[in-house]
Specification:
It contains 4 helices and no strands. The chain is an all-alpha fold and about 80 residues long.
């Protein structure tokens, strides 16, 4: 597993800093990517925030079948 998958595993094991590191790594790029789809930066940021909330609350399983970034984008 890559570094991001390790961060997520740390989060799942109770280390909230793992999630903070993931958010720090991906929030800007995800917002820009989503903005290219919805063409509204405020909406893109809302969707990005909802993605990380879902990650934190539902804690979906990352199985490593694709890159962590691709998996995160599917959420």
């Amino acid at each position: 597993m890559g570094n991001d998958a390790d961060r997520y595993r740390r989060f799942l094991d109770g280390d909230d800093n793992g999630l903070v590191e993931i958010i720090d790594e991906y929030h800007e790029g995800m917002s820009l990517y989503l903005n290219s789809i919805v063409n509204d930066m405020c909406l893109a940021e809302d969707i990005m925030q909802e993605t990380f909330v879902k990650l934190a609350i539902k804690k979906p399983a990352f199985r490593g079948k694709c890159s962590f970034k691709t998996w995160l984008s599917t959420i």
